[in-house]
């Protein structure tokens, strides 16, 4: 089965963006780590990034259809700032029925109060936050544990 690793706004800037918060690794490094983690669990990887909310909604809906068809194990979703703003992404996860893991590189609860609320947490299987880029591998392992 495939795992969709879906990254939202500004994650294309990883490596240069606030390295004290997000580390020095680039999105290409994240993809390489996810490729390894997926291979270790017998998954194929579909790795994507978009700065646009509607593109992320479309990707979640597509993932839901693939999961229903039996070809997708679930989604590892770092929605970036849309985590804290997007009813549309909440509705997409809920409406598609896809198994999603919410992922944050940083510990959002140790940061500004506007990052403490997530519209996604009520509709995902679980949340991984604060473990840096290796958190992506933890999320993929979690999906493997559910399979
Ligand atoms: C983030 C945390 C969000 O609050 C922020 O807007 C991001 C990245 C993280 O991975 O730690 O863009 O999701």
Automatic annotation (TrEMBL):
The pathway noted for it is: Metabolic intermediate biosynthesis; chorismate biosynthesis; chorismate from D-erythrose 4-phosphate and phosphoenolpyruvate: step 3/7
Q: Which PROSITE patterns match?
A: DEHYDROQUINASE_II
Residues at which substrate binds: 78, 84, 91, 105-106, 115
Name the keywords, alphabetized.
Answer: Amino-acid biosynthesis, Aromatic amino acid biosynthesis, Lyase
Q: Which GO molecular function annotations are given, in alphabetical order?
A: 3-dehydroquinate dehydratase activity
Q: Where is this site: Transition state stabilizer?
A: 17
> Is Lyase there in the keyword field?
yes
Reactions catalysed, semicolon-separated, are: 3-dehydroquinate = 3-dehydroshikimate + H2O
State how it assembles.
Homododecamer.
Please name the PANTHER family in this protein's record: CATABOLIC 3-DEHYDROQUINASE
Which family is it part of? Belongs to the type-II 3-dehydroquinase family.
- Tell me, in a sentence or two, what this protein's role is: Catalyzes a trans-dehydration via an enolate intermediate.
Q: Which NCBIfam families match?
A: aroQ (TIGR01088), PRK05395.1-2 (NF003805), PRK05395.1-3 (NF003806), PRK05395.1-4 (NF003807)
Query: What protein name does the entry list?
Result: 3-dehydroquinate dehydratase
* Species this protein is from: Polaromonas eurypsychrophila
């Amino acid at each position: 089965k495939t795992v969709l690793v879906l990254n939202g706004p500004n994650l294309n800037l990883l490596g240069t963006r606030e390295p004290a918060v997000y580390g020095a690794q680039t999105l290409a490094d994240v993809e390489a780590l996810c490729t390894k983690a997926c291979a270790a669990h017998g998954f194929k990887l579909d790795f994507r990034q978009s700065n646009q909310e509607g593109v992320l909604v479309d990707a979640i809906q597509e993932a839901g259809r693939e999961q229903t068809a039996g070809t997708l194990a679930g989604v590892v979703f770092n929605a970036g700032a849309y985590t804290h703003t997007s009813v549309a992404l909440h509705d997409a996860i809920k409406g598609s029925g896809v198994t999603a893991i919410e992922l944050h590189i940083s510990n959002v609860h140790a940061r500004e109060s506007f990052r403490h609320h997530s519209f996604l947490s009520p509709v995902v299987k679980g949340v991984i936050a604060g473990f840096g880029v290796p958190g992506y591998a933890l999320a993929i392992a979690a999906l493997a544990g559910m399979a």
